[in-house]
């Protein structure tokens, strides 16, 4: 679809981030010109064996590459910025973001070998530097509180109306890093007239208000006083506010802090570059932690989502090169699980508990050790009262969350609510708002040396192999179809190759010989026929004996 062929007007289409967590990629189209808001990654999960990270498929944007005026990143969390370095080479447009996000993005570009990305810094905390224009879009970064520095909402002004793209935000009255949400800026936008509010739905089904990050510092301090051994606190690496809270709690309980995990060290380095965390005591290196008494140590550790290669998972398995935990130590999960990660998180917790390590999650203690960076229902009500939009389009959340925000908007008297799917092309103006079409959407999978479609046949095959195993057979025939040597069969995931009494593979070799004996000479010289008969026979043999529909391949060699 060519955006220039749309009727003149203002459109919105989420290419990722609706009905799911992560992979946020939002597109605004004004009179054929395109503005991108955020470009993030998501976790792959068990459905994608061999893959850890997913990207939104930018096919629609690649098709409209010449129509793109800019990409704006609202903050530096991975689900909003993590895909930029992977996808930007396909788009090659200017990127606007805050100074802190720019620092994070430059590191990602360095790793990806990108040297020519044009990054333009905006400052949401200073009115003059918060305004910029891209094609038909007049933009203003509106400062909001979140769990990372310099997050902002995006005000988008066009000839067809004004839109507030919220990004991630909350109404923390006392953030430990960054500033409070600029309520006056949103009221001012509402007074000027807001056509549409495109809003964060993560906690739209949760009553009340999000607690302050300052309460986490107090909760961690109280919990630290109860601990006698080493303490490891696991967080999202990008939660700079939580790093500050942990360090303050450690400081008043006479403990020293070490950072465990490359992504965490990099994020803290970016924070230092931008003037954050500068008044904290120096961090202790991994090597130096081993020389401190256990009761003097706090470690901030990556791996709060159970990622198998993250620091905490390796510590729980006992295969981290520098850090170990033992009976009497405590691991605090200062985070909440992203839906779908519970299994991996529980595996880490079980490994730790089996070693006699105390494990504490937010639900295990009366102390506040985690707060969300997203608004609950009362905060969303405040926002809707400030901006008074004509249209609400919920994004950033699963379907129940999107519906929850739509219900809130309806109860607040918003005239129109449109709950999108990924790919919904929504006309915001002119005329009545509605979904007018759908564009191509999908996911890409990151492998060590390539990026492939998440529906790639290789991933589909791996998924099958997880459940059904595989059989590989080598058969060597002469020109007349006689066996030159005995067939060789190797099965994977079906029998124990180290068990000398397991003759299953040998039985399949006999099955191949019998299949060949049943063929006449015309059939034996037809490679396609021989291949298919043997493949079907082995598949049927395995199904009969094991009840499994396995994958079978025949390597047929003709001499």
The residue-averaged pLDDT reads 94
- The CATH first-level class of the largest domain comes to Alpha Beta
Proper CATH architecture of the largest domain: 4-Layer Sandwich
Taking strands numbered 1, 2, ... along the chain, how are they ordered across the largest sheet?
Answer: 8-7-6-3-2-1-21-22
Given helix and strand content, the structural type is alpha/beta
Task: From the alpha carbons, calculate the radius of gyration and give it in angstroms.
Answer: 28 Å
User: Outline, from the CA principal axes?
Assistant: globular
Distance between the termini: 53 Å
How much of the sequence lies in strands comes to 15-25%
Verbal overview:
Helix 4 crosses helix 8 and helix 10 crosses helix 11 (342-354). With 559 residues, the chain is of the alpha/beta class. It has an eight-stranded mixed β-sheet. Strand 17, helix 11 (342-354) and strand 18 form a beta-alpha-beta unit.
Features of this protein?
559 residues, alpha/beta, Metallo-beta-lactamase, Chain A, Rossmann fold, Ubiquitin-like (UB roll), eight-stranded mixed β-sheet, seven-stranded mixed β-sheet, 17 helices, globular
Short description:
The protein has 559 residues and is of the alpha/beta class. The chain has 17 helices and 27 strands. An eight-stranded mixed β-sheet has the order 8-7-6-3-2-1-21-22. Strands 9-10-11-12-13-19-20 form a seven-stranded mixed β-sheet, with helices on one face.
Chart the SSEs and their pairings:
Elements: E1 10-16, E2 25-30, E3 33-39, E4 42-43, E5 53-56, H1 59-63, E6 68-72, H2 78-81, H3 84-91, E7 95-97, H4 99-112, E8 119-121, E9 131-134, E10 137-143, E11 152-158, E12 161-165, H5 183-192, E13 196-200, H6 213-226, E14 231-234, H7 240-252, E15 256-260, H8 262-273, H9 286-289, E16 297-301, H10 311-317, E17 330-333, H11 342-354, E18 358-360, H12 377-387, E19 391-395, H13 399-411, E20 416-417, E21 424-429, E22 434-438, E23 443-447, E24 450-453, H14 457-468, E25 470-477, E26 488-492, H15 504-517, H16 521-524, H17 527-546, E27 551-558
Parallel strand pairs: 3-6, 6-7, 7-8, 12-13, 13-19, 14-16, 14-17, 15-16, 17-18, 19-20, 25-27
Antiparallel strand pairs: 1-2, 1-21, 2-3, 4-5, 5-23, 9-10, 10-11, 11-12, 21-22, 23-24, 25-26
Helix pairs in contact: 4-8, 5-12, 6-7, 10-11, 15-17
